[in-house]
Every structure is written in C-alpha cells, then in structure tokens.
Design a protein that fits this description.
GO terms for molecular function: maltose binding. This is Sugar transport system, sugar-binding protein. Keywords: Signal, Sugar transport, Transport. The strands form two sheets. Strands 1, 2, 3, 6, 7, 8, 9, 10, 11 and 12 form a ten-stranded mixed β-sheet that branches. The protein has a two-stranded antiparallel sheet with strand order 4-5. It is globular. The protein is built from 17 helices and twelve strands. By secondary structure, the protein is of the alpha/beta class.
C-alpha cells in the first residue's frame, strides 16, 4: 500500500514536471522576458504607425525583449529631465541634437563606445550627424534620421517669370525674388526669422553662434554680415514675407498656399505639400551659395540610453536595431525622414530622388542645429530681437548686441 502511494505521487510529480517543461517550451516565462522602456514625442499618425511596426519586427526577432513605447506629447524635454532627476526615466529615449550638449555634460547618459561591434558598422554613419552626439571622446547617441534644409520653388511661377533654373547664389535668389513678387505669388520668397533657419547665414561670413565656452557670439561683424542679407531683402527689396505677413502658420503653408514662390524648408515639407496641396507643381534645389560657400542646416535626433537603465544589454539591442541597417531602412523607407547611414540612403535611392537629392547632398557641409549647453537662452534672445530688427523697430547691430548680452547674462547665472 505504501509503495503504491509513493508510485502514485511519483507519477503525479512526473506528470507535473512534464507539463511544466512543455509549458516552458511553448510559452516563455514572463520572468525571463525583459521590458525595455522607450520614450519619444509624437509624430504624425503615419510615422507613429510605422514606428510601431518597426518595434513589432524588433520584438519578433528578439523574443526575450518587450518594448514598452511611450509617447510624451507635451513638454517632452522637461518631462525627461524631471524623470532623470527622479530616477524614473525610460531606458532609451529620443534626444534632439539641440539638447544633446547639456545632457552629455550631465553624466546622465550611458556612453555607448563599449557596446559597438564591428557588425554595427560605425563608419556607415554620416560623420556630420554622429559628431552631434560625441562628447569628450565618447559617443552618447546614434542618430535615427535627419533633415537638412533645401530651396523649394514653384515651377509654374518660375515659368511665368521666364526663369528656367533655380538660383545658385544668394544674389540670384534676391534677383529672382523681385521678379517673382506680385505675379502668381504675392511675394518671391518666404522668410523664417528664427535662429534655427539663420545660423548658416551667420557662419557663411565666418561668424559663430557660440564660442568654445558656450557663450553667445552671434553679434560679431561677420555674423551681422550674413543676417543683413535677410533685413535688406525684407525692408529694401520688399520681395520676402514671413508667415504672419500672409496669414499662415509655417513656411510650408506659405509656399503651399502660393503666397510665396520660394521657401527654404526641410524634407518634412515634401509629404506635407504632396498630401495637402496635390495640384502644386514644385521642385527642390540646394540652398544658393552665400559668400561663395555652400551651407545649410541639419536637424537630427538620436536614440540614447539612460545611465540608470536596469537592462543595458537589452537597451543596446534595441538601439542597435533601430539605428542598424535593417531597422533604419524600415523606418526611413517611406521618405518621411532621411537615413543617417550612407548605405541605407544609397539603397533607398534618395541620393538620386529628384526631390530628396538636394537634402542628401547638403548633409556633408551642413551646420548642425546646436547652440551649446544652454540653447534656450541663445535661441529665445536671438529670435526675440531679430524679429524686432526685421520689422525695422531697431537697427540690426543694436538688436543682436542686446540679444547676445541678455543671453550671456542668463548663461552666466546658470553656470
């Protein structure tokens, strides 16, 4: 009887072990699946859907990693900063190049040099983009996509004004603007008087936004020379307009509504114009040279790792997939954003695309959109005073000296 009892329990235990073994083969235990938290800001619905698909593909290839993706819709950078202080930040998150210098200097990001393998192919990244996320010989992020700025022009307006090619120099652009003003379009050129769109003009004559100590230097004589081009075109030629002059909300809208015949915009304007203004016939070209030099801006965002991330190996798996050749091709394949890897851009044919090739051409010589560790002080003071000068409320030099002085006082107080 006792032997039968033991045999019975032995059989029950054996069956239980068999069931548990089978269960573990078919359904991985929740405890063995690591969750990596990813945060970013919301893009348009098509982009959001695209990212969700890329993340699903990642999970399919990495069954032991689950990605918890969170969209932070409002005050993104403030939320991230607060969470980093409270040690509740995501494992991986978007970081704009503009904000990168401050974050990299604060010891809150994980340096990624030691994670890089030969297969990751570091040399494939555009150097000008990667450099925005380097600090003290360490790489803190890998850029997921980018856009430079290019000239958009209305083909119908050009034809009516007898213009067959886009302008190649800034002098030509001003000349074209005068010819185009008052024809099909009210104005020849749409101006956006923000530092993000003016920094390359400051650099064209040898000026700089900041010095090596992160203090503002944009009010120097070379910097003013580039900015004077904008003032002269707006006040003397009267051939340019800003968005508020024509009742629109952006450069793309100014152009799409045919209020201006030319505008300088990013790659993001292409799908917007094609969807919102399908009858508009437009083309793109590299920004005309200023002072004999090619220049444009480049805007980029990287995936970075929180230094306090609990699952760093898995966080790196996610970053390396999203910025690797396969993940990047999926993410940038629809043309909403441009790939930061040269091989992916070549594979997708963007360097030969009639509308996108000027953006790709500009990446090697573009000015990265960065303004030191304290960008808000630089950008806000510049934008407030430059618009005042554009409207003729004060001379350009006076406006820029005021902006520079105020910015540097704020920076000094923050150090």
């Amino acid at each position: 009887m006792r032997n039968s009892w033991f045999k019975f329990w032995g059989l029950i235990i054996a069956i239980a072990i068999a069931i548990i073994s089978c269960h573990s083969l078919t359904l991985p235990s929740a405890s063995t699946r690591v969750t990596v938290k990813l945060s970013g800001w919301g893009g348009n619905p098509v982009e959001q859907k695209l990212l969700q698909q890329v993340l699903k593909d990642f999970e399919a290839q990495h069954p032991k990693i689950k990605v918890k993706y969170e969209v932070i819709s409002d005050q993104y950078m403030d939320v991230i900063k607060t969470r980093l202080v409270g040690e509740a930040a995501p494992d991986v998150f978007y970081l704009d190049a503009l904000e990168a210098p401050f974050f990299m200097s604060q010891n809150v990001l994980e340096p990624l040099n030691t994670y890089i393998t030969p297969e990751f192919d570091l040399a494939d990244f555009e150097p000008n983009l990667l450099n925005s996320f380097k600090y003290q010989n360490q790489i803190y992020g890998f850029p997921k996509d980018y856009s430079t700025l290019s000239l958009f022009y209305n083909k119908k307006a050009f034809a009516e004004a007898g213009l067959s090619n886009p302008p190649s120099t800034w002098e030509e652009l001003r000349n074209y603007s005068e010819k185009l003003t008052g024809k099909i379009n009210k104005y020849g050129f749409g101006e956006i008087p923000e530092l993000a769109r003016q920094a390359y003009k400051i650099k064209a004559f040898g000026g700089q936004i900041i010095n090596q100590n992160d203090y503002a230097t944009f009010a120097s004589e070379p910097g003013l020379q580039g900015l004077q081009l904008v003032i002269d075109q707006y006040q003397k030629d009267r051939s340019s307009a800003q968005k508020s002059d024509v009742g629109t909300n952006s450069g793309s809208e100014m152009f799409g509504q045919s209020k201006v015949a030319m505008v300088i915009e990013g790659n993001w304007a292409i799908p917007y114009l094609q969807e919102t203004f399908p009858k508009l016939e437009f083309a793109t070209a590299e920004i005309p040279t200023i002072n004999g030099k090619n220049n444009t801006m480049v805007f980029t965002v990287a995936y970075v790792m929180n230094k306090q991330a609990k699952h760093k190996a898995e966080a790196w798996e996610l970053i390396s997939y999203l910025t690797g050749k396969q993940g990047m091709q999926k993410w940038t394949g629809k043309g909403f954003a441009l790939p930061t890897r040269k091989s992916v851009a070549e594979k997708l044919g963007y360097d030969k695309d009639p509308l996108r090739s000027p953006f790709v051409s500009g990446v090697s010589y573009a000015t990265p959109w960065q303004a030191g560790k304290y960008p808000a002080a630089i950008v806000n003071n510049f934008d407030n005073q430059f618009i005042s000068a554009l409207l003729g409320q004060q001379p350009l030099k006076q406006a820029m000296v005021r902006a520079q002085t105020a910015a540097n006082k704020q920076i000094q107080a923050m150090e």
